[in-house]
User: Which sequence fits this backbone?
């Protein structure tokens, strides 16, 4: 009788944080945060359940690393989108940022939920002790529009307008993720609609 051949389990020091992170992101994409566990990660990597704990103190520690990874990717996308704008217009840069943010969220739905939805307790504050770098980059772009006069509003209104624009971007993404974003007959792309309205509203001098 032939003996059954069992797949050899990987030893702990054959793993890397990058492998664990990549598998975790895949599980997160397929099953959401509720489906993520150290046991599932270990099964996919062919190692013991204890092995990932050599790289992460806890699952919360791992999730915080996923949030930071997502934030780095999002920031990179926003910076590239802004840099690709050749007009020098702050409005055009903000429009490019909005499109890039929507693209990131559409392609990373579960990761975006973990990054920006507040259902997961204090995980966000520990991952982001300060404002997320993506939001700070967006704020800086809005400030450039104020400083250049392209957004002809008093500078003390800059924080409120920045919050309004970011809230709109986030709101459109949430509507899309929950299936509530339905294109009306004859309506255009909701992102492009919003960009157009903001440009019309903010390019007019306040009375």
Assistant:
């Amino acid at each position: 009788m032939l003996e059954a051949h069992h797949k050899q389990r990987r030893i702990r020091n054959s793993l890397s944080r990058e492998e664990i992170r990549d598998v975790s992101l895949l599980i997160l994409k397929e099953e959401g945060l509720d489906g993520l566990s150290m046991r599932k990660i270990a099964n996919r990597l062919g190692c013991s359940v204890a092995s990932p704990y050599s790289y992460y103190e806890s699952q919360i520690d791992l999730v915080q690393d996923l949030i930071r990874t997502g934030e780095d990717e999002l920031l990179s996308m926003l910076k590239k989108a802004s840099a690709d704008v050749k007009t020098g217009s702050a409005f055009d840069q903000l429009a490019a940022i909005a499109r890039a943010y929507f693209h990131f969220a559409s392609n990373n739905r579960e990761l975006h939920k973990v990054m920006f939805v507040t259902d997961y307790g204090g995980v966000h504050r520990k991952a982001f002790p300060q404002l997320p770098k993506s939001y700070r980059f967006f704020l800086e772009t809005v400030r450039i529009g104020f400083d250049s006069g392209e957004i002809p509003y008093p500078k003390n209104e800059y924080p409120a307008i920045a919050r309004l624009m970011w809230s709109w971007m986030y709101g459109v993404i949430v509507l899309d993720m929950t299936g509530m974003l339905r294109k009306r007959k004859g309506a255009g792309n909701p992102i492009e609609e919003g960009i157009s309205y903001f440009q019309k509203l903010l390019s007019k001098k306040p009375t």
The mean pLDDT is 85. Residues 67-202 form a domain with the Tetracycline Repressor; domain 2 fold (CATH 1.10.357.10).
